[in-house]
């Protein structure tokens, strides 16, 4: 199966579809351009499609609705991009150059203890707390 993401005029993913590998193959050759042509037959010649990989082998990772497709953009020291990325979750977070993922300025959330699990607690990012004191940002919370 092959996955394709439809892009709007701002390179935002509006939908992701699955098509047969056969629909990406012409004369025994499987290629993105064949899949794009098939998607355009289904949804219109004026649509824009990019292949995405469920296992993350191409374009930084699997595209989702609301993701941004970045192509030939110079960013974060990289001369050219060809990736799908999620929308930036918080102002203070930065994009990993090699991973196409957003990272908090304080790294991963602290590890949860068994007591945290038992009490239904988890960490969330608190941007306001980080902006007030850049040594804090992960806040332990629960579903109450």
Please, could you describe this protein's structure?
By secondary structure, this protein is of the alpha+beta class. It folds into 2 domains: 2-103, no CATH class; 104-144, no CATH class. 16% of the residues lie in helices and 31% in strands. The protein contains 3 helices and 11 strands, in the order ββββαβββββαβαβ. It has helices at residues 32-43, 114-118, 127-132; strands at residues 2-7, 13-19, 25-26, 29-30, 48-52, 68-71, 82-85, 94-95, 102-103, 121-125, 138-142. It has a 3-stranded antiparallel β-sheet with strand order 2-1-5, covered by helices on one side. A two-stranded antiparallel ribbon has the order 3-4. The protein is elongated, with a radius of gyration of 19 Å.
User: What is the chain-wise order of helices and strands?
Assistant: EEEEHEEEEEHEHE
Q: Are there runs of 5+ residues with pLDDT below 50, and where? A: none
Please estimate the helix content. 10-25%
* Sheet of most strands: 3 strands, antiparallel
**Number of helices, counting only DSSP H or I runs of 4 residues or more:** 3
Could you tell me the radius of gyration in angstroms? 19 Å
Distance from first to last alpha carbon = 41 Å
User: What is the overall shape?
Assistant: elongated
**What integer is the average pLDDT?**
90
The portion of residues forming beta strands comes to 25-35%
In total, the number of strands is 11
Structural class: alpha+beta
Major beta sheet, strand line-up: 2-1-5
- Tally of discrete structural domains: 2
